[in-house]
Amino acid sequence: MAMNQIRSWRSFIMMKETVGKMGQRTFAAGTGKGKKGGKGGAGSDGPKASTLSKEVKSTTVVGANILKDGADPKVLPDSEYPDWLWHLLDKRTALSELRRKNIETLPYEDLKRFVKLDNRARIKDNNSVKAKN
């Protein structure tokens, strides 16, 4: 009796796995529709030449338009943009280096960053200690 139940459960599980695998979506690599020359065509694999002139590329931000009826925005002179924009990609000092410096001589921005990073590190340490217990 127990052996029959085990066999029926095995067949049920195998059937469920088979149905589950058959129901998975897969994506085709490519059907070849719309391509000339069929498989192995080397002519269309290279980079496409841009149809925009160099003048248009240097005066507009191509692809930045998000509106249906809008146009791509024009590139403005550097003086038209806010000062903080030019400092977004600057490297900031790490917490380990801020700890090595004298806290009393740090500029306000570095001090604020030190407090934020130090608090974050302390919270992570406390959480890891609680997770181990």
Automatic annotation (TrEMBL):
Keywords: Ribonucleoprotein, Ribosomal protein. This is Mitochondrial ribosomal protein L37. It comes from Melia azedarach (Chinaberry tree).
